[in-house]
Amino acid sequence: MTRHDVFNGDADGICALRQLRLAQPAEAVLVTGMKHEIALLGRVRADPGDEVTVLDLSLDRNRTALSALLARGVRVRYFDHHYAGEVPDHPGLEATLDASGAACTSELVDRYVGGRFRAWAVVGAFGDNFPAAAARLALGLDLDAGRLERLRELGECLNYNAYGASEAEVVIAPEQLYRIVSRYEDPVALIEGEPVIAHIARERRADLERAMALPAWRSTVGAEIHLLPDEPWSRRALGALANRHALGEPHRAHAVLAPLPGGGYAASVRSPRTGGITAEGFCRLFPGGGGRATAAGIERLDAAQLEEFAGAFTRAFVNPNGRTP
Hints:
By secondary structure, this protein is α/β, with parallel strands linked by helices. The protein has helices spanning 11-23, 63-71, 105-112, 118-127, 131-138, 145-160, 174-181, 187-193, 195-212, 232-248, 279-283, 306-316, and strands spanning 3-7, 29-31, 51-55, 75-80, 93-97, 218-219, 223-227, 253-259, 265-270, 289-291, 295-301. It has twelve helices and eleven strands.
């Protein structure tokens, strides 16, 4: 029997898997990728009796591959907080799903393992832009302000490293980063023991400074769109910039777009936390769009759809409270 661990290469996917494998040590074939590479189950080559664990990847985007694995006699455990759609009713599937927008995948795994490695759940929640959940999870860990801040920065760095059009555009490939993370039980020891974390932090700060210096492309009372230049740093800063604006102005919707090699744009969307259409609901209006309630994206928006996207976005989030008329 072969195990396969399939996970999003961002902070939430990495930290969810780290908790699970601390609680249940096992050798596994790793399958991961950049942030935008959601349909990863199609890459799994599993035989009957094998076990596949999936973390932080939309079931809806992996439905066909999941059904094929189950039909082949592969056992699948699935942990995720994105839009799932109809969940297959199959004895080979164990699904721990929550698309309410209240919890990230790292928190779902934290519950599953009984909170035994909660510091990693805190890191994952911070990285996935769930600061309130991260603070709540941290309450019982006896963390001083300095240590909590280090966990926050680690989460944001792990998340930032997953953005880019390819592995060539980021500091370190997500699989390599997970292998480094997997050497540590304590996330603070990871920070202190691995120079690559400080390297990622420096790159993140520099990219965000460039991005924050640019004015909005379109701005209304309820929504703001940022259009970044065609540069690798733009694609790396995509999610971090969207999170920064969402935290600074939670009553508005925010979209950040960056040109992609070969044409089109990657889009990262954050909806207000005050109701109305969700980020996931909006992004699913476009091919390749999806995510969760407050944070979602579009893998590739055609250049010809840019104005259509801008008009739909400003109409969808016309009021500062996030509600349409």
